[in-house]
Design a protein that fits this description.
With 254 residues, the chain is mainly beta. The chain has 3 helices and 12 strands; from the N terminus they run αββββαβββββββαβ. The protein has helices at 8-16, 74-78, 242-245; strands spanning 24-31, 39-46, 61-62, 68-73, 83-90, 96-107, 117-129, 140-154, 164-185, 188-207, 218-240, 252-253. The strands form 3 sheets. It has an 8-stranded antiparallel barrel with strand order 4-5-6-7-8-9-10-11. The protein has a two-stranded antiparallel ribbon with strand order 1-2. It has a two-stranded antiparallel sheet with strand order 3-12. A hairpin with a 7-residue loop joins strand 1 and strand 2.
Length: 254
């Protein structure tokens, strides 16, 4: 067989078939060129030495790191509005993230002044990130959709000629957001963002000057229907999770 067809046939068998055989048989039929061809059949057995391959190791499964970030909007801090947000990235290459944010304040200068500053708002936001850097996924540009709801009671920057306050038992907002985040340290980002959408809900006007027995008479009730800028943020972002704390050599598990 090695001499047939200049060895091409055997080379093909040796490359594509013999390495996978444990044993086999061959049958060669030939005849003599005589008056009455006599068919002669010859049987032979071919034994192929078994080739033992090293079994491959168990497939390596990459452990996907877990990230979570805690954020604080510095603009809200300047407005005396304590706030906190938690964001978790997910999806392939962490192209998506979900954020939960809340604001809470209750400032009062005293019974005689009634300089109220009470805001309780909370909401969620779904984001898509257009870039991803190794070790810190929440970087670059993003676009999102958000929704908020809550209450407020405001009477700021009052003077002798302005004793009116504004109270809402329920207000809400929804819209689209866009922003950019940049790393400033290993586990710290600085995030800039804007939100444009709708802000609505009922609110009441009251007059502090007519206060009697700690009750504020309502002057009027209004429906707020505002479309425009509803969010602005310059947030300090703290990135935590297994992705930031892992050490080299512990990135995979079998």
């Amino acid at each position: 067989m090695k001499r047939m067809n200049n060895g091409v046939t055997y080379q093909y068998l040796d490359k594509h078939m013999l390495p996978y055989l444990r044993g086999g048989s061959a049958c060669l039929i030939y005849y003599k060129k005589e008056k009455a061809p006599e068919i002669i059949t010859h049987y032979d057995t071919v034994f192929v030495e078994r080739i033992i391959y090293d079994c491959p190791e168990e497939p390596v499964r990459v452990r996907k790191p877990f990230y979570i970030v805690v954020k604080n909007n510095l603009l809200f801090d300047l407005a005396l509005l304590p706030n906190l947000a938690i964001e978790i990235p997910f999806g392939k290459n962490y192209k998506w993230s979900a954020e939960v944010e809340g604001h809470w304040s209750w400032w009062n200068t005293g019974a005689d002044d009634y300089h109220y500053h009470r805001i309780q708002m909370a909401g969620v936001e779904l984001r898509h990130w257009f870039a991803n850097k190794t070790g810190n996924p929440l970087n670059g540009w993003y676009a999102g959709i958000y929704g908020y709801g809550g209450t407020y009671d405001l009477r700021l920057f009052t003077n002798d000629n302005d004793d009116k306050g504004y109270l809402s038992d329920w207000s809400y907002s929804a819209g689209l957001s866009i922003g950019y985040a940049m790393p400033i340290a290993k586990r710290w980002n600085l995030e800039f963002g804007l939100g444009i959408g709708y802000f609505g809900g009922k609110y009441k006007k009251y007059d502090v000057s007519d206060c009697k027995d700690n009750t504020f008479p309502w002057l009027s009730t209004h429906n707020r229907n505002y479309v425009g800028l509803t969010k602005a943020k310059v947030s300090l972002v703290w990135l935590i999770g297994s992705g930031t704390n892992r050490k080299k050599g512990k990135e995979v598990e079998r």
